[in-house]
């Protein structure tokens, strides 16, 4: 009987990978793990699947430099080999930052941090001012849930926010609730800002930069 | 709006971005020839095409050539592109198609023609070949429909007929040479290209017609241009270029797996089947080479499924040796094998145990016709007892569902042949209940699927008419009325789709105007139910003064000049006439391995064939 072990893979997916859905990311990782010859553990049954688990699925249109995947491998697999071999077998816009045996659980993640560059052209400075105001006050948005649409105040789910006018953009740095009960998609913030400014940002770059425990320590 | 914003708005943006693992990027400054390989349908379908996978590798294997991929944008993306003036681009570089030397289209089915025109328009390339100047890309077509591409001849600068691994390098080399010498003009290039075997430059031929609308003659405009274009084949498949890596799509595609091409051609000679003729002669790869290639692809792709590709996989002479070799390493690597084109007469318990996708998936056979008489007439060479035996094997292994493919409207078809379809399905149901070990309390499900017969060029039935729409609809209803058993389910194809396909399949150059008008009317994605608009197409035909029945529902004369007579596939017209006569006598022809029937394809040569008559 093979003794399995769980390895945590910290990786980034940027550039073109922002347009790839969660399910497609899973398939991309499965083929990459096979190319990298990582000895994986499989589920039982007719259609055995690799045991892979992702933290915090990412919406299409968001890049990230702080993504996690746990993989269950055979016990003999070494973290540094996975780091090297998997890294060589990924598409250009994906990189492995680290592979290690983790002590925490994905359910321990409480917050996620984002940096958003929102280009409103000549209106960017005004947009930054509006952002400062609306993100620090009660902010009612229409949230889509499984039961239908609901108006809610998302301000309590904004754990921290800093808005400035930089690089000709409204630059929003924020830390949002990211646990399973309270997950705030950053597009609710950009949507609210678009609405207040009066038009959609010409260009936006949204980047996830970190994940945190309830005590604000960086999740690992 | 810029492309990045658009990408977050359209469905499945993964279709448009490139960047996949395994794609080829090159330094434009060092590249002399740029080739945009277009698939005139969605990314999901195009990425599944084996031919493109091969030729992409062949071209990029040449240092100073860069081949990129292009797909038809889905309607939501097309609307954004038109609104924001974004011309069609190639996914690797993101560069517009006008930047390329060659724009190649693979023509896999007739119903993609309207997408070709739409893609040219989206690329800002003039639709008509005659309107393109020397600075513009050369538009080249290939694939099965190029064997009669007359309905789209005016839109292409040249076509390639046959297997392209060697020829595509030759045409690119000719282009480079003329560019380097400074002798390149579109006109001179096309004239030179027409002299290379396998290349057809439609503009170099004048077509004249008889008063009744049939073709009178194809006349070359120059003496040094061939009167017939002979298809090219690869003689030795063990030695031909093989792509050892693949572009790995992010999004799910139709065939998202390794496709291992086992052999080309087919020994069978079904009389309705075009692929069975145009890919002759049969040429096999050896099991050693295949096993090595399969392993290499597994390591370089990470795909967990290998599909053995050919026209009829169980006809591969070394199928047991090959599957045994593969199973030595696939099982332990969690890789499954699939055999997508199994004949019922070769379906055995042994094979079923080996092939995991048969173990877990559904099972499908294609008897094609309901009676032995009609199966003989179409030369299917399949007996009812073989089919029932195969179903028995499947049922014994615990299967409860079987799919059966039929064709209706076949030449010589009578009412009893239609009755035979349900009768055969019923006997499959009986076979299920004859199994004493059948699972308790479960009933079988037999799904019958009936396609409409479409006469195709280069088949024994190329002269036959397709039955008119009312008859086809009547026959569909009739078959439906014969089905009394609730365990039998009947599906049938849309006869309107089949009719349009028949028109284009046997069309001549007069249809180019119809294609153009159809494009102007916004017709595209004809192969998709949600876009197919038969009534609109019919109004286009009417506007152009062309009767679709002339192409679809007319019996062509044996002495008539056919629009595709300009192409020589090796298989002779005399052979096809003989086969047509035998069909009307309900007589079969032995397969190539049993006996050579002198079809003529052996004039093309080839290694590991079954041809024993050398000319």
What secondary-structure arrangement, pairings included, does this model have?
The complex is a heterodimer of chains A (220) and B (615).
Chain A: E1 4-13, H1 22-35, E2 52-54, E3 62-74, H2 79-88, E4 94-100, E5 111-119, H3 124-135, E6 140-145, E7 148-153, E8 158-166, E9 169-177, H4 187-197, E10 203-212
Parallel strand pairs in A: 3-10
Antiparallel strand pairs in A: 1-3, 1-4, 2-3, 5-9, 5-10, 6-7, 8-9
Helix pairs in contact in A: 3-4
Chain B: H1 3-7, E1 33-39, H2 43-46, H3 50-60, E2 65-71, H4 75-83, E3 102-106, H5 113-122, E4 138-142, E5 158-160, H6 167-181, H7 186-193, E6 199-200, E7 205-209, E8 215-220, E9 229-230, E10 258-261, E11 263-264, H8 275-278, E12 283-284, H9 287-301, E13 305-309, H10 319-330, E14 336-338, H11 349-354, H12 356-360, E15 363-368, H13 372-377, H14 384-396, E16 401-408, H15 415-433, E17 445-452, H16 469-482, E18 488-492, H17 495-505, H18 511-520, H19 534-543, H20 549-552, E19 567-568, H21 573-584
Parallel strand pairs in B: 1-2, 1-3, 3-4, 4-5, 9-19, 10-13, 13-14, 15-16, 16-17, 17-18
Antiparallel strand pairs in B: 5-6, 7-8, 11-12
Helix pairs in contact in B: 5-18, 9-10, 14-15, 15-16
User: Low-confidence parts of chain A, pLDDT < 50 over ≥5 residues?
Assistant: none
DSSP strand count of chain B: 19
Just name the CATH architecture of the largest domain in chain B: Alpha-Beta Horseshoe
Question: Which word captures the global form of chain B?
Answer: globular
Mind explaining what this structure looks like?
The complex is a heterodimer of chains A (220) and B (615). With 220 residues, chain A is α+β, with helices and mostly antiparallel strands. Chain A folds into 2 domains: 100 residues, Alpha-Beta Plaits, CATH 3.30.70; 104 residues, 2-Layer Sandwich (Alpha-Beta Plaits). In chain A, strand 2 and strand 3 form a beta hairpin. The longest helix of chain A has 14 residues. Chain B has 615 residues and is of the alpha/beta class. Helix content of chain B is 33%, strand content 14%. Chain B is built from 21 helices and 19 strands. In chain B, helix 9 runs parallel beside helix 10 and helix 15 packs parallel to helix 16. Chain B starts with a helix and ends in a 31-residue tail after the last helix. At the A-B interface, helix 1 of A face helix 1 and helix 9 of B.
């Amino acid at each position: 009987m093979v003794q399995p072990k769980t390895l945590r893979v910290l990786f980034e997916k940027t550039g073109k990978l922002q347009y790839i859905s969660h399910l497609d990311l899973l398939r991309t990782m499965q083929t990459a793990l096979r190319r990298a010859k990582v000895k994986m553990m499989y589920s039982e049954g007719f259609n055995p699947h690799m045991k892979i688990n992702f933290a915090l699925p990412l919406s299409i249109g968001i890049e990230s430099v702080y993504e996690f995947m746990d993989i269950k491998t055979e016990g003999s697999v070494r973290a540094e080999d996975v780091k090297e071999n998997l890294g060589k077998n990924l598409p250009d816009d994906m990189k492995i930052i680290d592979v290690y045996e983790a002590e925490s659980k994905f359910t321990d993640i409480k917050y996620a941090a984002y940096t958003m560059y929102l280009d409103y052209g000549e209106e960017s400075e005004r947009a930054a001012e509006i952002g400062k105001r609306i993100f620090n006050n009660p902010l009612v948005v229409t949230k889509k849930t499984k039961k239908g649409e609901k108006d809610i105040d998302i301000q309590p789910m904004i754990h921290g926010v800093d808005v400035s006018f930089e690089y000709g953009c409204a630059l929003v740095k924020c830390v949002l609730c990211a646990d399973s009960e309270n997950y705030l998609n950053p597009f609710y913030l950009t949507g609210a800002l678009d609405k207040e400014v009066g038009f959609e940002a010409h260009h936006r770059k949204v980047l996830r930069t970190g994940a945190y425990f309830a005590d604000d320590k960086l999740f690992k | 709006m810029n492309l990045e914003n658009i990408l977050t708005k359209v469905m499945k943006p993964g279709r448009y971005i490139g960047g996949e693992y395994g794609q080829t990027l090159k330094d434009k400054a060092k590249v002399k020839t740029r080739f945009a390989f277009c698939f005139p349908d969605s990314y999901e379908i195009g990425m599944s095409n084996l031919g493109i996978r091969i030729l992409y590798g062949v071209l990029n294997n040449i240092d100073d050539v860069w081949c990129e991929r292009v797909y038809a944008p889905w309607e939501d993306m097309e609307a954004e592109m038109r609104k924001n003036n974004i011309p069609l681009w190639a996914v690797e570089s993101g560069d517009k198609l006008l930047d390329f030397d060659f724009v190649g289209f693979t023509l896999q089915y007739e119903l993609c023609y309207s997408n070709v025109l739409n893609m040219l328009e989206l690329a800002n390339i003039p639709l008509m070949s005659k309107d393109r100047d020397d600075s513009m890309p050369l538009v080249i077509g290939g694939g099965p429909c190029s064997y009669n591409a007359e309905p789209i001849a005016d839109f292409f600068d040249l076509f390639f007929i046959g297997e392209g691994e060697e020829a595509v390098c030759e045409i690119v080399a000719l282009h480079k040479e003329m560019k380097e010498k400074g002798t390149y003009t579109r006109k001179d290039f096309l004239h030179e290209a027409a002299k290379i075997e396998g290349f057809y430059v439609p503009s170099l031929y004048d077509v004249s017609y008889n008063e009744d609308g049939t073709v009178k003659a194809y006349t070359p405009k120059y003496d040094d241009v061939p009167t017939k274009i002979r298809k090219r084949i690869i003689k030795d498949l063990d030695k031909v270029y093989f792509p050892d890596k693949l572009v790995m799509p992010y999004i799910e595609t139709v065939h998202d797996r390794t496709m291992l091409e086992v052999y080309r051609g087919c020994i069978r000679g079904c009389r309705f089947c075009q692929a069975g003729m145009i890919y002759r002669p049969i040429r096999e790869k050896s099991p050693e080479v295949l096993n090595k290639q399969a392993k290499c692809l597994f390591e370089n792709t990470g795909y967990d499924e290998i599909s053995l590709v050919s026209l009829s996989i169980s006809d591969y002479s070394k199928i047991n040796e090959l599957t045994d070799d593969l199973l030595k390493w696939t099982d332990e690597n969690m890789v499954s094998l699939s055999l997508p084109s199994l004949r019922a007469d070769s379906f055995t318990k042994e094979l079923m145990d080996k092939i995991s996708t048969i173990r877990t998936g559904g099972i499908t056979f294609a008897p094609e016709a309901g009676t032995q008489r009609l199966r003989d007439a179409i030369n299917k060479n399949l007996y009812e007892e073989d089919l029932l035996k195969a179903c028995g094997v499947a049922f014994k292994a615990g299967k409860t569902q079987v799919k059966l493919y039929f064709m209706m409207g076949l030449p010589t078809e009578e009412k009893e042949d239609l009755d035979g379809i349900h009768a055969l399905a019923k006997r499959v149901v009986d076979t299920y209940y004859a199994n004493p070990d059948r699972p308790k309390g479960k009933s079988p499900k037999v799904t019958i699927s009936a396609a409409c017969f479409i006469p195709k060029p280069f088949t024994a039935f190329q002269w036959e008419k397709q039955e008119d729409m009312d008859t086809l609809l009547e026959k569909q209803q009739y078959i439906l009325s014969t089905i009394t058993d609730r365990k039998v389910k009947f599906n049938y194809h849309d006869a309107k789709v089949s009719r349009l396909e028949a028109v284009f399949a046997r069309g001549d150059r007069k249809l180019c105007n119809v294609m153009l008008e159809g494009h102007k009317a916004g017709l595209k994605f004809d192969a998709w139910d949600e876009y197919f608009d038969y009534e609109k197409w019919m109004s286009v035909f009417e506007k152009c003064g062309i009767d679709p029945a002339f192409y679809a529902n007319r019996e062509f004369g044996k002495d008539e000049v056919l629009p595709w007579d300009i192409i020589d596939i090796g298989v002779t017209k005399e052979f096809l006439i003989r086969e047509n006569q035998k069909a009307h006598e309900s007589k079969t022809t032995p397969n190539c391995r049993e006996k050579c029937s002198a079809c003529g394809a052996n004039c093309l040569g080839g290694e590991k064939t079954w041809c024993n008559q050398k000319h």
